[in-house]
Structure formats: C-alpha cells, structure tokens
Specification:
- By secondary structure, this protein is of the alpha/beta class.
- The chain has helices at about 1-35, 35-65, 85-95, 100-110, 130-140, 150-165, 200-210, 230-235, 235-245, 250-260, and strands spanning about 65-70, 75-80, 120-125, 145, 170, 185-190, 215-225, 265-270, 275-285.
- The strands form two sheets. The chain has a seven-stranded mixed β-sheet, with helices on both faces. Strands 1-2 form a two-stranded antiparallel sheet.
- Mean pLDDT is about 80; it is low at about 1-5 and about 65-80.
C-alpha cells in the first residue's frame, strides 16, 4: 500500500510539473503570436525556469524514491524513504542550501552546546556530514556514532570520514529501533531525516532517541516547517521537496507535544530559516 501511495503521489507531482511547463510555454507562444514583444522575453524566462525546475524536481524524486527496507535482524519490514545515491544527495544539499552548508551545520551543532569528550549520535546520518563537522568540537576523547538505514549512504559516510580523518561508527538501522544501550549519548541529532520515517513511527523514534540519551543530554531535531507565510510556501527547498517527494512533513511544532509527553524538558523551537525549523529538548534526570 505504501509503495502504491508513493507512486501515486509522484505521478501527481510529475503531472503538475508538466502542466506548469506547458502553461508557461503556451503563454510565451500566445503572447509572441500577438506581437506582445514586451512580454515575450519574461514569458520565455518563465518557461525556461519551469523546465529547469521540472528537471530539479525529477532529480529530487529520483534521489528520494520510496523503498521498503528489510530488517533481517528483526525479521520484518518497515516502510520508509531510503536514499541510494549519496553523491547526488550531497550535491543536492549544497544546491538547496545555496552553498551555505557549513554555516547550516555549524548552527545545528551550536544548538546542542557540545563539549569536548561528548558522545554523539546522529539518527539518519546520511553521508555523515554533520558528524564529521562535530569531530572538531568533541575532540579525540569524543565519540561519533550514526545510524542510517540506507547501505549506500552508510558506506559513503565511512569513506568521507576516512578522507576527512574522522572516526565515525556507522550502524545500519532504523530510527524506531536504535542499536545502542540505554543512556549512551550526550547529544542525539536527527536532521532532515524524521520526515522519511512513517508518521505512525514518529513517537517510537522519539522514544528511542530519549532512551539513548544520558540524563541531561540534548535532543536536536531539524525538520521542514509548514509555511507560515506566502514567501515561505514558495522557497526553493519547500517547492522541490513538496512536489518531488511523497514524504510527509514532520513540523517541529507538531512534534513538541509528543516530546513533552515522553518526558523531555527545556523544549525550544528555534527557527533556521523560512522553510526549516528545529526542536531542542533536554532529558531530565528522572
């Protein structure tokens, strides 16, 4: 059922993109045929932009295509969105963040107030970029762990870490069944990964993140926000994700009640831009 829904959503997105492109081209041709030269150039630009946008959205749809992940250890499957093209994913991330990926990662790490020697877990670590950036902050006494369901992404993260001279411990697994003992980490991150987890698994994933934290440990979740303004609704990040990916939005504000119910305190909702928001929380001593 999940795969059929993903296919239907993607088909609908492609239909919309083709419709936008056709309308833009038709507009430019009609205006040109009526001699409206003043408007022809802008209409042609719109058509060109629509074509580029359609190509980008197609690339996002291909990178974030749906896939059922088999968990051999637990003998069952869970539906989710896996990414199998790590190099394209890294390129796309740089493009969507407009070349400010380092600044973006630094702002995320600042939210956890990391100290030297800290043990860190990144849930849905992707290609390991955040963990590699955190290596300098925790120093040689710190430990960097990541869990990632996509074998291709996990393998690429290990290669990137070796090239960067960082020691990462990457495990293949899912957010709702973290393969770590209780109270193992000082900080747990989940950056633009929770929306790839089925909605019905969000509470389980958050409960697992809390279980993995030590008392006083920090949880940092970064996710796509529901648009609060017209400008926010039409950012490049939101348009490409919304049209090309069937994954649901995991708005940090919608996660706040669940996080509080699970026993976190000091919950905050910092904003990281028009499209992105964060949720930070602390695991109490109890």
């Amino acid at each position: 059922m999940c795969c059929r829904n993903h296919a239907a959503n993607r088909s609908h997105a492609i239909h919309n993109l083709l419709l936008i492109l056709a309308l833009a081209i038709a507009l430019s041709l009609v205006l040109r045929s009526h001699g409206v030269s003043l408007w022809y150039a802008p209409a042609a630009v719109v058509a060109a932009h629509a074509l580029v946008f359609a190509a980008l959205a197609g690339l996002v749809a291909w990178i974030t295509r749906g896939h059922r992940h088999a968990d051999a250890k637990h003998g069952h499957q869970h539906a989710g969105m896996l990414i199998h093209t790590p190099r394209f994913y890294d390129i796309l991330a740089r493009f969507l963040l407009l070349g400010r990926e380092r600044t973006f990662r630094r702002r995320i790490l600042d939210l956890a107030d990391l100290q030297p020697g800290a043990a860190i877990l990144d849930v849905g670590c992707g290609t390991g970029t955040l963990l590699i950036a955190a290596a300098e902050r925790v120093g040689p006494a710190g430990t960097l762990h990541g869990v990632e369901p996509s074998p291709e992404m996990a393998a690429h993260a290990r290669k990137k870490a070796a090239t960067a001279g960082a020691t990462l411990h990457i495990a293949e697994g899912s957010a709702d069944r973290l393969p770590y003992p209780d109270a193992s980490f000082d900080a747990v991150f989940c950056t633009l990964a929770l929306h790839h987890v089925p909605v019905e698994k969000h509470t389980d994933a958050l409960r697992e993140m809390r279980r993995g934290l030590r008392p006083g440990g920090r949880l940092v979740i970064v996710e796509i926000r529901r648009p609060r303004s017209l400008r926010a609704a039409f950012t490049l990040f939101r348009l490409l994700h919304g049209l090309a990916s069937p994954a649901p939005v995991a708005d940090p504000e919608s996660l706040e009640p669940v996080v509080r119910e699970l026993g976190f305190d000091s919950v905050d909702l910092p904003t990281l831009g028009a499209s992105l928001g964060a949720l930070t929380a602390r695991k109490g001593a109890a």
